[in-house]
Structure formats: C-alpha cells, structure tokens
Design brief:
With 257 residues, the protein is α+β, with helices and mostly antiparallel strands. Helices cover 23% and strands 28% of the residues. The protein is built from 5 helices and 15 strands. The strands form 4 sheets. Strands 1-2-15-3-4-5-14-7 form an 8-stranded antiparallel sheet, with helices on one face. The protein has a 3-stranded antiparallel sheet with strand order 10-11-12, covered by helices on one side. α2 packs parallel to α5. The radius of gyration is 18 Å and the shape is globular.
Length: 257
Amino acid sequence: DIRTCYYTRNIKGKIKMEIKHLQPGDTFILANERWHILAINPLNSHVLVESIESIFSGCFNNSGNNIWSTSPLTAQLEDYLNTVLLQREPSLDHFILPMIRDLTALDGRVDYGSCVNMITLLTAQEYMHCKKDIKNTSFARLLITPCTTAEGGSDVDVTYVTTEGDIACADVDSRFMIHPVLCLHPDTPIVECRLDEDAESFDSECILRCLNEISTHVGKESVVMEKEKNAQRVNPQTHIAAIDKDICMQRTGDSLW
C-alpha cells in the first residue's frame, strides 16, 4: 500500500492512506496543497492541520468589527473549501470535521462566545501551543482572536503573528497572509512528504499522479461506504471538535489531547 514518488530531486513523498500514521510537525499533501499536522487527539478522533502556504492575503474585516463569526473571511474560506479543495478531492467531504471556535479575546473577555467552522484560521491560543510545529513563518499571518471586545473598549483590533513569531494586534482592515486550518478524521487519505533543506519546488505532475492513485483507491472504497454509510461515513454532528479547549490542555497533559 505504500509507494514512493519523487516530486523533485530533493523531495520524496510516500503515499499513506491514513493521516493517523503521522505525527505533529509532519508534512503531507492533500488536495494538491502542502499541510502540516499541528495536533492529534490521542484517542484518534480528530487531527488539526494547517496549510503551509498562504492561499491569499486578506483582512479580517475592511468595514466592520473584530467578531470572527461575522467576518467576510469566513465566507471566503468556505468558498475556497468548496470551489478549490473539494473540487480537487471530492472524497475529502467525508473526512472534514466541524470545529467549535472559541472567540475569547486576548484580554480574556468572552462576550463574543463561539461559532462553528468547517474551515478556519488559528486562534492566538492555538498558535501559542502549536508554535513549534508551524512552518513557513516568513510572512505575518492573521489569527481569529480579537485583542479585546466592544465591552473592553475597542472592537476594531485583531491578533496576528509577526515575522518574528510574536503575537501582536492590528486594525481589522490590515492585510495579512491567510493560512487555512482544517480538522480531519484520522482515516483521511493523504500523501506524506519529506523536504530536504535545499528543496525549492514540487513537481506538480507527480503530485497529481499520486493524488489520482489515492482517488482511485478512495473511489473503490466509497462503494462500501455508501452501502454502510451509517457505520463508515464521518458524521459531522457526532464529531464536532472543540479544538481551542483541547489543544490548550493537550500540552499540559490535562485532557484527551
């Protein structure tokens, strides 16, 4: 089940049919994009991953407040999921899990509550706990955590990660690099890849060839999944991942992470 392909002379990938075999910090290919694993639930119920490359630059809100649930970016990310990722890899729809997003402000205020996303960005809390496993920090990147709320005196400041890796605050209309985050079922099929230090680029034709092989495999298995969908398919309603709380406690050993 494991075959080897070469993306360039410096990049070698191994086809692995399940993401649960990887570890935090590992890099892989999904829907022709490079991702890295930030956290894995020890009970193997979900895996948190982030895109290594930014998909575009954008602002939190060019004419509104710092509430993530109403940010235009949420719609842009959903569009990217539906028109790009799922178009490239339709079977991925069975493996993406919804995430509860904790909108607690950097100063601790909780009046923004929470929301649920299928695709999202990291919170400041997640970034701090997963920082050592995050790659490609050469550009400032946006987070979804507000600096404070309207009750705290300002609803126009959001957090971001500086090029030095620190968390800072900026106006909601400031532009930053956007790195989408997904929560995946542990059985998600992926292509593992290892990068040498002097690696520069991917051979896209080889990547697509590998992904086509995976799609063929998944296509055969989908017949079984259709016949036993209640047992085999991921049910988003029963796999909602409370990522913020879990990751916060994972590193201290106080929870299931």
